[in-house]
Design a protein that fits this description.
Elements (H helix, E strand, L loop, with lengths): L2 H23 L15 E3 L7 E4 L2 E3 L9 E5 L4 E5 L3 E6 L3 H4 L4 H5 L3 H4 L2 H14 L3 E7 L10 H8 L39 E5 L10 H7 L4 E7 L1 H14 L3 E10 L4 H15 L1 E3 L1 H14 L1
Parallel strand pairs: 6-7, 6-9, 7-8, 9-10, 10-11
Antiparallel strand pairs: 1-2, 2-3, 4-5
Helix pairs in contact: 5-10, 8-9
């Protein structure tokens, strides 16, 4: 910086310090010098997890949202959840897994299994959103260069030299398989995301690995997770299990989940969830409770 310009800036700074000192000596406080300090402002990811600033200063006290209890029946007992702190995670209901021309269908996977949750979710999601509770779509959406996928994932997606692996186009070409932003990673057209819904991409069976899911949920004050989608024994269960390990309350909506695996695999997952990780309920029971609550309100 030229000497003259630097000298001019020093003179301005000196005059400002003299003015501040004069104001304080005359009884004026620092807030009156800062026009932003007199305006009310909120800083945080959601209203219930935000700082507030006003003319008195900065408050770190969170204005927690009041509890909104809802009782639902589960396979074990009646369960009460707080809708204000609950979130419905819909796993992998996307084109490459659920569309007749998607990656799975072209591999020969049964669409009857992967599409089974669609009509149930078409009924459940509007009722759930009507209460103000949150929905999160958790889809495979990998990097184009595949650099963060380990060898195991590469092999399981391709298996043979002539197979179609992650990030590769299928014979009926709708773009690269499960690549974030492309057709295969998008939510199936039979289901629509609402503007208030959250969308998170993953690149493992579990949605909690190497992405923002956990920090997003914690910042939003979420403690209870309900699970729907595919596949019951793979991405749904892996994500639910990790959620339980991280301390979330977990509920598997068994009729809103599906898998092409044998029936005994699903029974084992239900047993493990009930035994170790949370609760097993139905979307039908949840929707009945939501209908009653929405009628009352």
């Amino acid at each position: 910086m030229p000497f003259r310009q630097r000298n001019d800036r020093n003179k301005v700074a000196f005059k400002q310090r003299r003015w501040h000192a004069l104001c304080f000596s005359n009884g004026m406080n620092r807030k009156s010098l800062d026009p932003l300090a007199t305006a009310t402002a909120s800083f945080g990811p959601v209203p219930s997890n935000a700082w507030q600033r006003d003319a008195e200063g900065i408050s770190l006290v969170r204005q927690l949202e009041p509890a909104r209890p809802l009782r639902i029946g589960t396979d074990a007992s009646t369960l009460e959840i707080d809708l204000a702190r609950s979130l419905l995670i819909v796993v992998d209901m996307q084109n490459d897994f659920c569309h007749p021309q998607g990656w799975f269908a072209q591999k020969g996977v049964s669409m009857r299994a992967t599409r089974r949750p669609i009509p149930i979710l078409q009924q459940l999601l509007p009722a759930w959103r009507q209460t103000g509770a949150k929905v999160l779509w958790l889809n495979w959406g990998i990097r184009q260069d595949l650099l963060n996928l380990p060898a195991t994932v590469h092999f399981k997606g391709k298996r043979t030299a002539d197979g179609v692996g992650y990030g590769e186009p299928s014979p009926v070409d709708h773009g690269r398989s499960v690549v974030q932003g492309e057709w295969g990673a998008q939510i199936i057209a039979d289901l629509q995301a609402a503007p208030s819904d959250i969308q998170v991409s993953k690149h493992r069976l579990s949605g909690f690995w190497d992405n923002e899911l956990d920090s997003l949920l914690r910042a939003s004050g979420i403690t209870t997770l309900l699970f729907a989608g595919i596949n019951t024994d793979r991405c749904v269960f892996s994500t639910l299990q990790d959620a339980a390990f991280l301390g979330y309350d977990c509920i598997l909506l068994k009729d809103a989940c599906s898998t092409p695996s044998p029936a005994y695999v699903t029974r084992a997952i239900h047993f493990l969830v009930e035994q170790c990780h949370g609760f097993v309920a139905t979307a039908a029971a949840l929707q009945q409770s939501l209908a009653s609550r929405n009628q009352e309100s």
